[in-house]
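Students often ask why inverse folding is considered easier than folding. One informal answer: many sequences map to the same fold, so there is more than one right answer. In these notes we will look at a single instance of the problem. The structure comes first.
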């Protein structure tokens, strides 16, 4: 069994709200300190306890709903003193369960008692949400205004919404979770989809996830109850306080509900179309506490299993689905007629469950008559159905029948001096009387102001139509003036573009004439010397051996791209700005000529550039001749260095041999 964390909470002060918190973890109590409401919520969200226990949830005041919404999934808020109208004092509950009470005015002591009682299964869980969840699937962002691209985007988003709705629908069907779907069709897709899922939010964990920030949004919202509900933590608590019943349920579009007591008498019979899960829960709760929830089909529908889990009741499933003839026979034995088939199916399921238990229940009745406990027969039967043996059930009932702490002395209350409170009440009464007089005077002022406002509003109505026409004329004139300004600006820009293109056209014509005559070489232009730009040039124009490239800005280029150009076998590289050092080194080693545009007088218009053929050929020849001369000089220098190094090494070798011969002659002598 996994460890359980329980937080006991009790209020210290109302304004501002401060709470004492004590934790219970596997039998160990620990005082956690004093928290404001905000810090308490943050603490609960970080620790994720199984239960937050209080003696009265009204201590949260107007923040109760906010507190319940902020609880993490799986955390229960429990009122240990009982459901509203049936509450008992914390101290009497503690004594009943063998818990020692010390200072009843200490908030930490009250928080500790709440945690200990909750650990023993005492109390009622506060239910803020129905067993229903709303899942909304919508577009994630605005489509924008007009245009073909916006239309395509809108259709794409509607298709994505449709796909997400289908995906959620498929997952819910495969998980056998009942739901209703409303969808708004648009553009052969869906503008939105809304699921009403008949399950708790916890049951959808890991199955449906919220989505935000993309083209599609998925929002999951539990349905809040109009009024808070209270469900017992342990089944036996409900057995003692409410009538025990066997409930049969026929789920579907029309839900059938039947309830019989543990003596086989019918206590409720109902059917209703489109009945929500929460309404089913409330109807059954009003009748009594179910110890068995029964169905007439095998396997049991998920809806019936959900109701059984909600009440912590046993689930009855027949060995095989009941036939119509068998159901009618059961109803004839009961001697009752029903309004529809749904009531028949529900009643047949409940009565079938009762007949299965009837021998055991009659045995319990016989033993209780012998023990003189017939007045508590229902409690004992319900406990036996829950799994207790007859002896344990009778012992528990007789223990609760004993008077609570006979001879317990009444609690002494400290005497209080009420005179300061009386004086304060009189002061407040005088203040209320003064405020009432002032309030009456202000009401008269408000009436006069309303009359003045009425006169002014009538005057405004007289001027309204004329002013409206004047404003419309001014707005229309202003819109036309702005339109004229925009058109004039567009005209100026168009004239400037035409003028620039005319100049470029003249230059291009001149370049074409030069190229046709064969006196010029066309250059393939790159804006920057980068891999992406090189790929663009290859894709759009192509690069072949012998091409001459022109680069506007070679800054930032490295050895890799230079080696790529060498590998492609281009004839020369011309740049508008100087090449980086590493690129120069690679091109120089490969004897690939490079120049600046100033050296060759390159003529360029936008993406076109040419250079005179004669100038280019002469520059290439001169540069290659220069590099060959430099290479010969470097090679000669290298040979001279090698000869010099050899001479030095040889002299060292001769000197070493001479020394060795001298040492050998000296030893002979």
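Output (designed amino acids):
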């Amino acid at each position: 069994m996994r460890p359980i964390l329980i937080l006991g909470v009790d209020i210290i002060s109302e304004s501002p709200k401060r709470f004492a918190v004590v934790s219970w973890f596997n039998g160990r109590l620990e005082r956690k300190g004093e928290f404001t409401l905000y810090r308490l919520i943050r603490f609960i969200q970080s620790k994720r306890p199984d239960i937050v226990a209080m003696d009265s949830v009204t201590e949260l005041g107007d923040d109760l709903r906010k507190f319940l919404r902020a609880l993490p999934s799986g955390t229960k808020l429990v009122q240990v003193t009982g459901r509203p109208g049936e509450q008992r004092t914390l101290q009497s509950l503690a004594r009943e369960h063998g818990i020692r009470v010390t200072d009843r005015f200490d908030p930490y002591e009250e928080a500790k008692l709440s945690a200990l009682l909750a650990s023993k299964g005492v109390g009622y869980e506060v239910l803020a949400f129905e067993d229903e969840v709303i899942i909304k699937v919508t577009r994630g962002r605005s489509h924008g205004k007009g245009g073909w691209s916006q239309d395509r985007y809108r259709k794409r988003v509607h298709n994505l919404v449709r796909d997400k709705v289908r995906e959620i629908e498929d997952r819910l069907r495969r998980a056998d979770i009942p739901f209703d779907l409303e969808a708004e069709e648009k553009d052969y897709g869906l503008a939105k989809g809304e699921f009403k899922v008949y399950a708790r939010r916890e049951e959808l964990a890991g199955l449906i996830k919220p989505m935000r920030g993309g083209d599609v949004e998925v929002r999951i919202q539990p349905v809040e109850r109009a009024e808070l509900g209270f469900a017992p933590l342990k089944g036996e608590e409900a057995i003692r306080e409410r009538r025990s019943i066997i409930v049969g349920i026929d789920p579907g579009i029309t839900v059938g509900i039947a309830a019989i007591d543990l003596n086989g008498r019918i206590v409720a019979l109902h059917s209703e179309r489109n009945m929500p899960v929460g309404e089913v829960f409330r109807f059954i709760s009003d009748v009594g506490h179910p110890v068995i929830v029964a169905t007439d089909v095998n396997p049991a529908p998920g809806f019936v299993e959900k109701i059984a889990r909600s009440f912590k009741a046993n689930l009855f499933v027949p060995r095989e689905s009941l036939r119509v003839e068998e159901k009618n026979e059961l109803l004839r034995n009961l001697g009752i007629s029903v309004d529809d088939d749904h009531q028949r199916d529900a009643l047949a399921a409940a009565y079938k469950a009762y007949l299965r238990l009837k021998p055991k229940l009659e045995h319990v009745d016989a033993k209780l008559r012998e023990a003189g406990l017939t007045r508590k027969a229902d409690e004992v039967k319900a406990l036996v159905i829950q799994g207790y043996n007859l002896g344990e059930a009778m012992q528990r009932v007789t223990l609760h029948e004993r008077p609570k702490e006979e001879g317990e002395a009444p609690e002494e209350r400290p005497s209080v001096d009420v005179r300061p409170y009386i004086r304060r009440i009189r002061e407040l009464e005088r203040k209320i009387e003064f405020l009432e007089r002032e309030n009456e005077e202000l009401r008269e002022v408000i009436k006069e102001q309303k009359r003045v406002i009425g006169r002014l509003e009538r005057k405004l109505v007289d001027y309204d139509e004329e002013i409206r026409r004047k404003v419309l004329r001014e707005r229309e004139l202003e819109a036309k003036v702005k339109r004229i300004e925009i058109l004039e600006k567009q005209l100026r820009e168009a004239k400037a573009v035409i003028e620039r293109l005319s100049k470029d056209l003249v230059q291009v014509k001149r370049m074409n004439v030069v190229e046709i005559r064969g006196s010029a070489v066309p250059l393939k232009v790159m804006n920057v010397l980068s891999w992406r730009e090189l790929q663009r040039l290859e894709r759009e124009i192509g690069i072949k051996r012998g091409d001459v490239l022109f680069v506007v800005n070679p800054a930032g280029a490295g050895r890799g791209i230079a080696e790529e150009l060498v590998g492609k076998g281009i004839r020369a590289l011309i740049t508008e700005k100087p090449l980086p050092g590493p690129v120069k080194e690679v091109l120089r080693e490969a004897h690939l000529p490079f120049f600046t545009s100033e050296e060759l007088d390159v003529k360029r218009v936008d993406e076109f550039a040419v250079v005179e053929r004669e100038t280019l050929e002469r520059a290439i020849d001169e540069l290659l001749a220069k590099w060959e001369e430099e290479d010969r000089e470097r090679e000669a220098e290298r040979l001279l260095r090698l000869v010099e190094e050899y001479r030095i090494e040889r002299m060292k070798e001769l000197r070493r041999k001479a020394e060795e011969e001298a040492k050998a002659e000296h030893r002979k002598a």
